[in-house]
Amino acid sequence: MMDLLGYGAFFLTTALIFSLVTLGLNLQWGLTGLFNVGLAGFVAIGAYTSALLTTPDDAARLGGFGLPILVGWLGAMIVGGIAAALTGMATLRLRSDYLAITTFGVAVVVQLVALNAQKLTSGPFGIGFIPRPFGSLAETPLLFNLSNLAVVSAVTLIAYLALEHLSRSPWGRVLKALREDERAAISLGKSARFYRVQAFAVGGAIMALAGALQAHFTGFIAPDNYLPILTFQVWVMLIVGGSGSNLGAVIGSILVWGIWAGSGTLTSVLFAPEQQARAASLQIVAIGVMLCVILLIRPNGLFGDRLRRPRLGKQAKVTTAKSSSGS
Amino acid sequence: MSLQFVVDGLLTGSMIGLGAIGVTLTYSILRFSNFAHGDFMAWGTYATLAVVSAVGATFGKAAPIAPLSFGWPLLVALVIGMAFTAILALLLDKVLFSRLRSQGQAIIVVMASFGASMALRSLLEFTFTSRPTYFSRAIQIAMPVGFGIRITPDQIALLLLTAVLVLGVHLLMTRTQTGRSMQALSQNAALARIVGIDVASVVRVTWVIGGALACVAGVMIGILVQIRPFMGFDMLLPMFAAAILGGIGSIPGAVLGGLIIGLAEAGAVQLIGAEWRAAVSFIILMAVLFVRPIGLFGVRER
């Protein structure tokens, strides 16, 4: 029973960290319509930044500044935000696909740096001894997991409330206006590019914070944690939950992570150890097909996009929305 | 710095360029960046490999053609593989992309291609495992051709094949009615429809050309490097960079972009080490986006 509770806390912590990434993505895609397929890169930037700032001094690499965990989180958000802002500035005046390609490139490059810049990241061996909140409780796993769950829940809740507030604020309304009808918004004197760069940077900062949380939760990071599969998982979470809805982002994350972890357990029971790598790739196939099917059948996900409801003067858009969700 | 990098760069550049033709055509005619294009490459290569093994099992081992490392079975298999990849692309379009395209949101199609890419690649990994394989394990002796450059017969043959294919596609695009229809559709879709261009057939030709060339590029990688489920995915960034550098929609541009990136990569390997190779295409991509986002031969979007 205690074990189950401990696993439950562990599972929820991981799911909530995912949901934080999904919230960041929802700000970028759901609210603003910016397509980021390199979010694993931003998560990695956050994790490595925070690890560098907070780990004890290490002779083998630069840094290990031994700063408090909160400083690490803050640093992660700043660096992640700057990286996202730079990416946005380069591409957001162009067609939307360019952003997709560029973010994809960012993820590839971050992965390369993590693997090869040994002085900074310890290369493929990863960084260990990352301080963990309530690390003194590690002797009693249940207590440790529960206290970490509390920390992660608190951060996720704050992010959720802040994002809900933001999306209702004038700033959020400009973003939605840009997503729905760019020309109209521009004609009202809003600089499309400026607002988009801001949204992209804030989203990137949230993703980086999630990366930092994850790093401090597990105490160890390595380049393999940030492969394209992470980007993919988070996208499925957002699409399942329904892009545009923060609540959908959180619930979609927990749901998809549940399916993912559950099917992982199932394959480890059903398949012999030497077949597990193959079974894992089958798991990815299933999720990939699921993403495509949801896009075809129910593009609005579970919680839909409440913002694209029928409105006056938008008849054309309403009919297309209906035909796409009804088919 | 030895001049050997020129040969390596031209070869890598040919692979990137052949792939980038498909990327640039899909982008300009179907209006979306196809993230599954690299996986067409890998699927085509594995299909070719499967046919080669099947031929080997049926007719016994065929001797390679004089100086090359491969014999007629590979040539036959390549043609079948190209057809297979084209059909795969058409099928994926029918099942997935065309339905989403009709909803008019380009970015949803990109997202679907991202999902399809993951599924296709993992399916290959499931079927063939992630262990690399080869068309032939024989080692070819490279011939010196002066200036400190060495080249193998395979490499010469593949460079020639690339040149022939690129010329063929170029002629198709500029000299035939189909090619002109494709150009018209990429430049102004609405007007092209009005003058009665058969959009469905242009879309089919686009997928067939893109798929078939992706297969050739993949087989080139298979002959010169190795065959892995991730081989195409790793080529995705260089292909996108080449298509953007050359100018979206331009076939000579895609090939030239590919060659430039291939040469830059090969040069970078000599100067700063092979581990940073993949960053080269990203740097070129960012530079193009900042300086001249329409690329070398691009036209402004209308």
Describe this structure in words.
The complex is a heterodimer of chains A (327) and B (302). Chain A is mostly helical and 327 residues long. Chain A has 13 helices and no strands. Chain A has helices at residues 2-31, 39-54, 69-91, 96-116, 118-121, 141-168, 170-180, 182-187, 192-218, 228-241, 246-270, 276-297, 315-326. Chain A is globular, with a radius of gyration of 20 Å. Chain B has helices at residues 4-30, 37-59, 72-101, 106-128, 153-175, 177-187, 189-194, 199-224, 231-246, 251-272, 277-291; strands at residues 143-144, 150-151. With 302 residues, chain B is mainly alpha-helical. Chain B: One of its GO terms (cellular component) is plasma membrane. Chain B: One of its GO terms (biological process) is D-alanine transmembrane transport.
Task: Give a brief description.
Chain A has 327 residues and is mainly alpha-helical. Chain A contains 13 helices and no strands. Chain A has a domain at 1-225.
The portion of residues assigned to helices of chain A is over 70%
Rg of chain A? 20 Å
Q: Can you tell me the residue ranges of chain A where pLDDT is under 50 for at least 5 consecutive residues?
A: 306-327
Number of helices of chain A: 13
Mean pLDDT of chain B: 89
Mean pLDDT across all residues of chain A, rounded?
Answer: 84
The SS-based structural class of chain A is mainly alpha
Distance between the termini of chain A: 45 Å
Which chains make the largest contact? A-B, 45 and 46 residues
Transmembrane segments (chain B): 6-28, 40-60, 72-92, 104-124, 156-173, 209-227, 239-264, 276-299
GO cellular component, one term (chain B): plasma membrane
Keywords (chain B): Amino-acid transport, Cell inner membrane, Cell membrane, Membrane, Transmembrane, Transmembrane helix, Transport
Protein name (chain B): Branched-chain amino acid ABC transporter permease
